[in-house]
């Protein structure tokens, strides 16, 4: 990275699963650098969903380096997920035509429930499939799959965990880490956010801030996708031998069923 910016820049790893992200600092300038970000980053920046894209450079080996503004801020705390700021930003994302157009141009096909189901089940091993909670979950998913179709297809983030919401010092909210973006039912994002952070008695109030009614159909779609995502989380933590987290999601699955 030094040969791109110059020796005077101080560059350090910025964490993350891929090891492809870096933090660069020189005097009063700070940048977030990433190798081979999706072209989707440009429209996310233009829409104000992520911190501003400063420049993009293609290297001789074909790698693309992007530089974004580094903003001082913090991730949201779980109780803060009930704020109107969160509901409004998620609605802006789900309504964004430029974002939908860009993902479509990147050949992202809209996901329907069957496709989503198959993509998750392919990753699940026989040991996880034999868990009583997972068996019950699969029975529910197969029983309801025909009832969760939704004509509305939007850009979904896919991981609306509170760690991915960045609140800056001047109270600007961003949603970062878009590697799992898809074109799908907005219930994918809404369900996990509500189930994880909002007491059920407050779902209607939160959805009102977002601009949606809590219908029986939306409730079913949210539950269906949350159950499916939870099976995926159980397998993910099992693969990483994080058995405490795996057991948390098994218990979570038990409670929502």
TrEMBL record:
Q: Which GO terms describe its molecular function?
A: transferase activity
**Transcription regulation keyword on record:** no
Print the keywords alphabetically: Transferase
The root-end lineage is: Bacteria, Bacillati, Bacillota, Bacilli, Bacillales
Keyword presence, Transferase: yes
> To which species is this protein native?
Neobacillus mesonae
PANTHER family on file? CELL CYCLE REGULATOR CCRZ (PTHR40086:SF1), PHOSPHOTRANSFERASE YTMP-RELATED (PTHR40086)
Which InterPro entries did the record assign?
Aminoglycoside_PTrfase, CcrZ_PhaseVar_Mediator, Kinase-like_dom_sf
Stored Pfam families: APH
Outline the extent of the Aminoglycoside phosphotransferase domain: 14-223
Give the protein name, as stated in the record. Phosphotransferase
